[in-house]
Amino acid sequence: MMVKFIHKLASPKYFYHLSGKLLPWLMAMCLLFFLLGLVQGLIYAPVDYQQGHSYRIMFIHVPSAWMSLMIYIIMATAGAIFLIWKIKLAAIIASSSATIGAAFTFIALVTGALWGKPMWGTYWAWDARLTSELILLFLYLGYIALEEAIDDPRSASKACAVLVLVGVVNIPIIHYSVEWWYTLHQGASVSKLDTPSIHISMLIPLLLMTLACKCYYALTILMQARNKILWQEQNTHWVRALITENQSKG
Amino acid sequence: MNKQRQKRLILVLILIFGVGTAVTLGLQALNKNLLYFFSPTQVVAGEAPITRTFRLGGLVKKGSIKREKDGLTVHFQVTDGAKVIAISYTGILPDLFKEGQGIVAAGKLQSPGHFIAEEVLAKHDENYMPPEVADALEKAHKEGKSVSQEESAQDTNITPTTDSVL
What we know:
The structure holds 2 protein chains of 2 kinds. By secondary structure, chain A is mainly alpha-helical. Chain A has helices at residues 2-10, 12-44, 58-85, 88-119, 128-149, 153-167, 170-180, 200-232, 237-249. Chain B folds into 2 domains: 3-33; 36-166, CATH 2.40.50.140. In chain B, a hairpin with a 2-residue loop joins strand 5 and strand 6 (114-123). The longest helix of chain B has 28 residues, at 3-30. Classes of the chains: A mainly alpha, B alpha+beta.
């Protein structure tokens, strides 16, 4: 049953139709969560006992940093699936994720620098957390460059999948850097095993913003993947039928 | 799963584990160099490169901050709960600098136990809460402390957050 569904989902035609139905819902959820999260985080959440209002940049910084890790893990998984099972859709998911992943990494680094200046006293420090996150940005950029450099889409997907799998070692390093080494960056607040060391009134907007970012990622990746599917499958019956159908409508 | 897919799966796993092992070994070898700062205990033990500039991190010891008349020079001590090192610094301190705060100072040892800083950065901990909650916690902490002090005279005066700040 499950295997059958996965096989069905992996067929570009089925994926195209299913994702088309999901898009408006994702869009609505994304807007709702962003609105709720921003209003709660920037207006209603109380000030921090140490950092005053400055801590509010966390509501952008932390979800972006989490997304930068999550998207890379998704890309690595998709890359492995493509290498092993040769499922074309996996390659499309991986390549659509690269730009959005790079964007989130960039946002995390920039907001972190803007937060670091007033709190730490410096924009940048070469500590383990900051440096490994910068390497993640380079991995994303390297992925995009490699994909653009190879003309044949199949060999491009293959090379990129290997690159993304080599880079996956960086993900646990980023996550545990604050525990393994002395860093300027503080330790984890939310993903600790015991109770999170962040007050509930600040945790809720943070989680809302995280949900918003996840919906935004799902939305953009589906839109990009749909475009790539249409392009790749342009000579198939179902795409031609879709085009004539839309033309007669328009 | 057919033979060819199995083979490719094994290759992917070898790739990940191979890179993982290589990087782990590399990081192990570089371990000391990846520390952003040294603790007072490490400096006293002679693990820090005392002949050149390095970073020293710790908590600002309570009651140790002394400001000079010029308004810019400040003397204070940092501790990791075990050892104490005195720091002198001339310049603008970050807003978060205060007693009990985690800081990272870059500079050189002038004499054993005396560090001349060229730059002082503040570390903040991973706790986020409204000021009222912080006050309530502090109160509860003090009450708990006075009780424990009665029980044992040897209170080492290390706050429970020392670990997470360092």
